[in-house]
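Milestone 3.1: sequence recovery, worked example.
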Protein backbone atom coordinates (compact mmCIF):
# COMPACT_ATOMS: atom_id res chain seq x y z
CA UNK A 1 0.00 0.00 0.00
CA UNK A 2 1.55 3.21 -1.11
CA UNK A 3 0.73 6.50 0.61
CA UNK A 4 1.55 10.14 0.13
CA UNK A 5 2.09 12.35 3.16
CA UNK A 6 2.15 16.13 2.67
CA UNK A 7 3.09 17.86 5.93
CA UNK A 8 5.47 20.76 6.49
CA UNK A 9 6.12 20.29 10.22
CA UNK A 10 9.42 18.32 10.11
CA UNK A 11 8.95 16.57 13.46
CA UNK A 12 5.38 15.49 12.78
CA UNK A 13 6.31 14.42 9.25
CA UNK A 14 9.16 12.26 10.50
CA UNK A 15 6.97 10.69 13.21
CA UNK A 16 4.22 9.88 10.76
CA UNK A 17 6.57 8.49 8.12
CA UNK A 18 8.07 6.16 10.70
CA UNK A 19 4.70 5.06 12.08
CA UNK A 20 3.32 4.45 8.59
CA UNK A 21 6.37 2.46 7.52
CA UNK A 22 6.14 0.40 10.70
CA UNK A 23 2.54 -0.30 9.70
CA UNK A 24 3.95 -1.70 6.40
CA UNK A 25 2.93 1.18 4.15
CA UNK A 26 5.22 2.54 1.47
CA UNK A 27 5.42 6.28 2.03
CA UNK A 28 6.39 9.20 -0.18
CA UNK A 29 6.43 12.54 1.58
CA UNK A 30 6.52 16.21 0.66
CA UNK A 31 7.01 19.26 2.88
CA UNK A 32 5.26 21.84 0.70
CA UNK A 33 2.16 22.19 -1.46
CA UNK A 34 3.92 22.36 -4.82
CA UNK A 35 5.86 19.11 -4.42
CA UNK A 36 2.82 17.45 -2.84
CA UNK A 37 0.57 18.49 -5.73
CA UNK A 38 3.10 17.16 -8.23
CA UNK A 39 3.40 13.75 -6.53
CA UNK A 40 -0.37 13.35 -6.12
CA UNK A 41 -0.88 14.27 -9.75
CA UNK A 42 1.73 11.93 -11.20
CA UNK A 43 2.04 8.94 -8.87
CA UNK A 44 -0.43 6.27 -7.80
CA UNK A 45 -1.39 6.20 -4.12
CA UNK A 46 -3.87 4.14 -2.12
CA UNK A 47 -4.46 7.20 0.06
CA UNK A 48 -3.10 10.68 0.77
CA UNK A 49 -2.63 12.45 4.10
CA UNK A 50 -2.72 16.15 3.38
CA UNK A 51 -2.04 18.96 5.82
CA UNK A 52 -4.05 22.05 4.91
CA UNK A 53 -1.62 24.67 6.19
CA UNK A 54 1.32 24.28 3.80
CA UNK A 55 4.01 26.60 2.46
CA UNK A 56 4.04 27.59 -1.23
CA UNK A 57 0.58 26.25 -1.97
CA UNK A 58 -2.14 25.52 0.61
CA UNK A 59 -3.65 22.07 0.99
CA UNK A 60 -7.16 23.06 -0.15
CA UNK A 61 -5.83 24.37 -3.44
CA UNK A 62 -3.82 21.17 -3.91
CA UNK A 63 -6.86 19.01 -3.18
CA UNK A 64 -9.14 20.98 -5.54
CA UNK A 65 -6.50 20.67 -8.25
CA UNK A 66 -6.36 16.87 -7.91
CA UNK A 67 -10.14 16.52 -7.93
CA UNK A 68 -10.43 18.78 -10.97
CA UNK A 69 -8.03 16.45 -12.76
CA UNK A 70 -10.29 13.54 -11.87
CA UNK A 71 -7.94 12.03 -9.27
CA UNK A 72 -10.09 9.91 -6.99
CA UNK A 73 -7.65 8.55 -4.41
CA UNK A 74 -8.97 8.92 -0.84
CA UNK A 75 -7.61 12.00 0.89
CA UNK A 76 -7.50 12.50 4.63
CA UNK A 77 -6.86 16.12 5.60
CA UNK A 78 -5.12 17.36 8.73
CA UNK A 79 -6.63 20.52 10.12
CA UNK A 80 -5.71 22.96 12.86
CA UNK A 81 -7.61 22.78 16.12
CA UNK A 82 -10.83 24.79 16.39
CA UNK A 83 -11.10 25.56 12.73
CA UNK A 84 -14.40 23.98 11.77
CA UNK A 85 -14.50 26.11 8.63
CA UNK A 86 -11.33 24.35 7.40
CA UNK A 87 -13.02 20.99 7.78
CA UNK A 88 -16.10 22.14 5.91
CA UNK A 89 -13.99 23.67 3.14
CA UNK A 90 -11.86 20.52 2.98
CA UNK A 91 -14.83 18.19 2.66
CA UNK A 92 -16.36 20.48 0.03
CA UNK A 93 -13.05 20.37 -1.84
CA UNK A 94 -13.21 16.57 -1.98
CA UNK A 95 -11.59 15.29 1.23
CA UNK A 96 -12.81 11.88 2.38
CA UNK A 97 -11.98 12.26 6.04
CA UNK A 98 -10.21 14.64 8.41
CA UNK A 99 -8.26 14.66 11.64
CA UNK A 100 -7.76 17.65 13.90
CA UNK A 101 -4.28 18.27 15.28
CA UNK A 102 -3.05 17.07 17.67
CA UNK A 103 -4.14 13.46 17.12
CA UNK A 104 -2.98 10.00 18.10
CA UNK A 105 -1.10 8.10 15.43
CA UNK A 106 -3.29 5.06 16.18
CA UNK A 107 -6.35 7.05 15.17
CA UNK A 108 -4.71 8.10 11.93
CA UNK A 109 -3.83 4.47 11.17
CA UNK A 110 -7.38 3.28 11.93
CA UNK A 111 -8.90 5.96 9.70
CA UNK A 112 -6.50 5.14 6.89
CA UNK A 113 -7.37 1.46 7.05
CA UNK A 114 -11.06 2.34 6.90
CA UNK A 115 -10.54 4.73 3.98
CA UNK A 116 -8.54 2.23 1.96
CA UNK A 117 -11.06 -0.52 2.70
CA UNK A 118 -14.01 1.60 1.68
CA UNK A 119 -12.29 2.56 -1.56
CA UNK A 120 -11.79 -1.11 -2.33
CA UNK A 121 -15.48 -1.74 -1.62
CA UNK A 122 -14.82 -3.79 1.51
CA UNK A 123 -16.80 -2.99 4.63
CA UNK A 124 -14.88 -5.25 6.99
CA UNK A 125 -11.36 -4.95 8.47
CA UNK A 126 -10.83 -8.57 7.53
CA UNK A 127 -10.17 -9.37 3.89
CA UNK A 128 -10.58 -12.90 2.69
CA UNK A 129 -10.43 -15.12 -0.34
CA UNK A 130 -11.21 -18.82 0.00
CA UNK A 131 -9.09 -20.23 2.84
CA UNK A 132 -7.00 -17.04 3.03
CA UNK A 133 -7.76 -14.26 5.51
CA UNK A 134 -5.96 -11.02 6.25
CA UNK A 135 -6.81 -8.86 9.22
CA UNK A 136 -5.79 -5.30 8.33
CA UNK A 137 -5.96 -4.18 11.98
CA UNK A 138 -3.08 -6.33 13.10
CA UNK A 139 -1.50 -7.36 9.78
CA UNK A 140 -2.14 -11.04 10.39
CA UNK A 141 -2.54 -13.26 7.36
CA UNK A 142 -3.70 -16.84 7.74
CA UNK A 143 -4.66 -19.86 5.67
CA UNK A 144 -7.36 -22.02 7.25
CA UNK A 145 -6.58 -20.23 10.52
CA UNK A 146 -2.83 -20.97 10.35
CA UNK A 147 -0.79 -17.75 10.52
CA UNK A 148 1.51 -17.03 7.59
CA UNK A 149 4.92 -15.47 8.13
CA UNK A 150 5.28 -12.75 5.55
CA UNK A 151 7.91 -10.10 4.87
CA UNK A 152 6.63 -6.54 4.59
CA UNK A 153 6.92 -6.71 0.78
CA UNK A 154 4.92 -9.91 0.68
CA UNK A 155 2.33 -8.48 3.05
CA UNK A 156 1.80 -5.39 0.91
CA UNK A 157 1.55 -7.46 -2.22
CA UNK A 158 -0.96 -9.84 -0.69
CA UNK A 159 -3.03 -6.99 0.78
CA UNK A 160 -3.16 -5.29 -2.61
CA UNK A 161 -4.21 -8.48 -4.39
CA UNK A 162 -6.88 -9.10 -1.74
CA UNK A 163 -8.27 -5.58 -2.07
CA UNK A 164 -8.56 -6.30 -5.80
CA UNK A 165 -9.48 -9.97 -5.61
CA UNK A 166 -11.21 -11.49 -8.63
CA UNK A 167 -9.69 -8.71 -10.73
CA UNK A 168 -6.70 -8.78 -13.05
CA UNK A 169 -3.88 -6.70 -11.61
CA UNK A 170 -1.07 -5.83 -14.00
CA UNK A 171 2.59 -5.98 -13.10
CA UNK A 172 2.93 -2.27 -13.76
CA UNK A 173 0.10 -1.51 -11.37
CA UNK A 174 1.77 -3.59 -8.66
CA UNK A 175 5.06 -1.79 -9.18
CA UNK A 176 3.30 1.57 -8.96
CA UNK A 177 1.38 0.75 -5.83
CA UNK A 178 3.95 -1.20 -3.91
CA UNK A 179 7.15 0.78 -4.20
CA UNK A 180 8.17 4.25 -3.13
CA UNK A 181 9.15 6.72 -5.82
CA UNK A 182 12.86 6.37 -5.16
CA UNK A 183 12.78 2.56 -5.27
CA UNK A 184 14.26 0.68 -8.19
CA UNK A 185 11.03 -0.13 -10.00
CA UNK A 186 11.84 -3.22 -11.92
CA UNK A 187 8.78 -5.29 -12.73
CA UNK A 188 10.92 -8.44 -12.55
CA UNK A 189 11.09 -7.97 -8.79
CA UNK A 190 7.30 -8.27 -8.72
CA UNK A 191 7.61 -11.71 -10.29
CA UNK A 192 10.09 -12.72 -7.62
CA UNK A 193 7.77 -11.58 -4.84
CA UNK A 194 4.78 -13.28 -6.46
CA UNK A 195 6.78 -16.52 -6.68
CA UNK A 196 7.72 -16.30 -3.00
CA UNK A 197 4.18 -15.52 -1.98
CA UNK A 198 2.83 -18.44 -3.97
CA UNK A 199 5.07 -20.83 -2.05
CA UNK A 200 3.33 -19.71 1.16
CA UNK A 201 -0.21 -19.97 -0.21
CA UNK A 202 -2.39 -22.88 -1.29
CA UNK A 203 -1.80 -23.70 -4.97
CA UNK A 204 -3.93 -21.89 -7.52
CA UNK A 205 -4.84 -18.89 -5.39
CA UNK A 206 -2.71 -16.48 -7.41
CA UNK A 207 -3.30 -17.09 -11.07
CA UNK A 208 -1.08 -15.70 -13.84
CA UNK A 209 -3.18 -14.19 -16.61
CA UNK A 210 -0.91 -14.34 -19.62
CA UNK A 211 0.18 -10.98 -20.94
CA UNK A 212 -2.06 -9.15 -18.48
CA UNK A 213 -0.94 -9.80 -14.94
CA UNK A 214 -2.21 -11.69 -11.91
CA UNK A 215 -5.51 -12.50 -10.33
CA UNK A 216 -6.21 -13.62 -6.82
CA UNK A 217 -9.33 -15.72 -6.69
CA UNK A 218 -10.79 -18.49 -4.58
CA UNK A 219 -10.20 -21.96 -6.03
CA UNK A 220 -13.39 -23.45 -7.46
CA1 LIG B 1 1.22 22.89 8.46
Amino acid sequence: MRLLLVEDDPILRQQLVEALRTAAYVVDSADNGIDGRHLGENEAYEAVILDLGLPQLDGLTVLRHWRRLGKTMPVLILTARDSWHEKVAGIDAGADDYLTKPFHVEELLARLRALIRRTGGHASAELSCGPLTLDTRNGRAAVDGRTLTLTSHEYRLLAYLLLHREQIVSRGELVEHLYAQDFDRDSNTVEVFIARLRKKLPPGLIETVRGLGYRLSAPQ
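The chain has a mean pLDDT of 90. The longest helix spans residues 105-119.
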